[in-house]
Amino acid sequence: MTRMTQRPPINEQLSRTRVMAILRSADAAGLPAVAHALVAGGVTCLEVTLTTAGALDAIARIRDELGPEVSVGAGTVVGLDDVRDALAAGAQFLVSPVVDTEVIRASAEHGTPFYPGAQTATEVLTAWRAGAAAVKLFPASTGGPGHLRQLRAPLPQIPLVAVGGVGIDEARDYLDAGAVAVGIGSPLLRGADRDADAEALAALTARARTLLDKVNDRADGPLPTEEVSS
């Protein structure tokens, strides 16, 4: 008998703002301050990559300090151990650079949105059928908005999040091509994680506001959900 898993929805903060800030650093010491600065600018969906030393502690601390209005997730999730550890730390969504159907299903079974990275139509459909909340087009800059638009043509029911090489000035181009959201890391942080003084954090807050100004006036209909086979 085929077992059905309910697809978790896209987390509300990402659906509402259309922006995921990617917090990747050599270590996590400066990330709580960065998170506060981003939230002050209106960016409330925050991904902390597991390649950052101390990422799990940072996820727990940011969630504790910023509360329920902010969604904090774990990035670079590539195995079942990563799923377990990230969820134990309090991650509210998971992101990966790859499509691993076992990992996607494990996240869906926990009711946690998963955003796996894909480039081809086959990868996008495989990820969606496994239970992804949305599929991360990664790296998006390889083919640009045109590639995203071409993927959307035969697969309009699958929400795509453009990540990888997306800058503040390019964000709207990806949304206009059909992305439901964009993920932005270094073009947004610009080293604020390494030098988290008051001036750098204020500049980060200003960039966050600029980014939202560029994307916030875009309106879409309801995002698709469905049961998935596992």
Q: Which helices and strands, and how do they pair?
A:
Blueprint: E1 4-6, H1 12-17, E2 19-23, H2 31-40, E3 45-49, H3 55-66, E4 71-75, H4 80-89, E5 94-95, H5 101-109, E6 114-115, E7 117-118, H6 121-130, E8 135-137, H7 144-152, E9 160-163, H8 171-176, E10 181-184, H9 186-189, H10 198-215, E11 227-229
Parallel strand pairs: 2-3, 2-10, 3-4, 5-6, 7-8, 8-9, 9-10
Antiparallel strand pairs: 1-11
Account of the 3D structure:
It is globular, with a radius of gyration of 16 Å. With 230 residues, the chain is α/β, with parallel strands linked by helices. Helix content is 41%, strand content 17%. Helix 2 (31-40) runs parallel beside helix 3 (55-66) and helix 2 packs across helix 10 (198-215). The strands form three sheets. A seven-stranded parallel beta sheet has the order 4-3-2-10-9-8-7. The chain has a two-stranded antiparallel ribbon with strand order 1-11. Residues 218-225 have low confidence and may be disordered.
Short descriptors:
7-stranded parallel sheet, 41% helix, alpha/beta, 230 residues, globular
Please outline what is shown here:
The protein is an alpha/beta fold and 230 residues long.
Give the count of helical stretches.
Answer: 10
Which term fits the overall shape?
Answer: globular
Rg (C-alpha, Å): 16 Å
- For the largest beta sheet, what order do the strands appear in spatially? 4-3-2-10-9-8-7
- What fraction, in percent, of the residue positions are helical? 40-55%
> Separation of termini?
10 Å
The helix-strand sequence is EHEHEHEHEHEEHEHEHEHHE
Tell me the strand percentage band: 15-25%
Q: Major β-sheet, in short?
A: 7 strands, parallel
Low-confidence stretches: 218-225
Average pLDDT: 93
User: How many beta-strand elements?
Assistant: 11
User: What would you call the structural class?
Assistant: alpha/beta
